[in-house]
Amino acid sequence: MLVWASSIFFSLFVPLALMAAWKIYREKKARPALQFSSLGFIKTVGSSLRARLRWLPALIYFIALGLVVVALARPQRADTKVKKNIEGIDIMLTLDISDSMLIEDMPPHPNRIEAAKRVLSDFVKSRPNDRIGLVVFMGEAYTRVPLTLDHALLQKSISELRPSRNIKMGTAIGSALATAVGRMKDSTAKSRVIVFATDGESNSGTIDPETALDIAKGYGLKIYSIGIGRDGDAQLPIETIDAFGRKVKRYQPIHSSVNDELLGKFAKDTGGVYQRATDGRALEKVFKDIDRMERTKIDVNQYTKYAELFQPYVKWAVYLSILALFLGQTLFRRVP
Questions:
Q1: If we measure between CA atoms, which residue out of 197, 217, 214 comes closest to residue 258?
Q2: Of 54, 147, 163, 335, which is least surrounded by CB within 10 A?
Q3: CB distance 95 to 161 below 8 Å
Q4: pLDDT tens per residue, range 181-217
Q5: What is the CATH number of the domain that holds 253?
Q6: 23: pLDDT confidence band, cut at 50, 70 and 90?
Q7: By CB neighbour count within 10 A (0-12 exposed, 13-18 middle, 19+ buried), where does 54 fall?
Q8: Sequence-separated (6 or more) residues with CB below 8 Å from residue 155
């Protein structure tokens, strides 16, 4: 990239232009004369090439002065190198995808799971330098995406989340946390975080939540826990196929509740934070808070090397000055 270290010298073009204008004005005003008895013969003689180019030495001289001004402005080539030192964070997203996540109480989103998918996607977009993985659970838990920087793959997996009939029914909180810990235990990142979101109480799984918490504490993992939805009676949408092959949605009464005490203990014992989200906007705020609290450290060092480029301008200014002087004293020399 070309830069000018002393661009203030470009202001010298103003007096240089005034000098050129004055030179032109004097040339037009000064009209040398010779006495002849008759102008007839003179009028038949045209101007020679040398006469038509009498202004050439002055033009070359002014060009040389212009090159001197450019040299004084000190043109430089700036080579800038930016070095980034990124201290990334490993984050394991752990999401409940049980049937209760279909309850439609998270406006402006259609239901709980769609609200969770939206905020998870936005969260991943905001953290391009972190390794992020995904564990999902119902009555069982499994790793859907291990820790990765391939966020396109992770985003695709998030978009496809929905309750599955191939997984045991229920809410296996202990197994889910243990699975997330298992994926995080070998991480060498300085900051290792589990984001744990559920809308139910632990009623399934082979590992007790307290045991899973002890394992997480043993590995020094931090847990941000989130309770999704409102407690109380709700309507669970169920889709069936009628006799004509059409999808029919009906609602089944269900009692929904979140174990605030357990999720709060997950966060408190590991240095994280527990928050409750009872609608879509509250859930978005929870993830924005987590994004703000767990920031990736990026140190940017910028180095700029400058190379001086004024020498060719000085060299050509000297050459042109000598040329202008030579032409003025030889080919274009004017004799009164």
A1: 197
A2: 335
A3: yes
A4: 999 999 888 889 999 999 989 999 899 999 999 999 9
A5: 3.40.50.410
A6: confident
A7: middle
A8: 121, 124, 125
CA atoms within 13 A on the CB side of 77: 4
- Do both 99 and 198 map to the same domain? yes
Whether residues 39 and 141 share a domain: the answer is no
Q: Which helix (H) or strand (E) holds 120?
A: helix 112-125
Same domain assignment for residues 109 and 231: yes
**Structurally, how many domains does the chain consist of?**
2
DSSP state of 220: T
Domain presence at residue 335: no
pLDDT, one tens digit per residue, over 277-318 is 999 999 999 999 998 888 766 555 666 777 888 899 899 989
| Residue 286 tokens, joined | 């929870």
Q: What's the DSSP call for residue 62?
A: H
The percent of the chain in helix, strand and coil, each rounded to the nearest 5, is 40, 25, 30
Most distant pair of Cα atoms in the chain: their distance: 128
Amino acid type, 88: G
pTM over 0.85: no
Q: What residue type is 246 in one-letter code?
A: R
Structure tokens of 243?
């006799």
| Structural domain includes residue 336 | no
Q: Does 23 share its domain with 172?
A: no
- Position 182: which residue type? G
Quote the domain boundaries for residue 41: 2-80+303-329
Same domain, 63 and 131: no
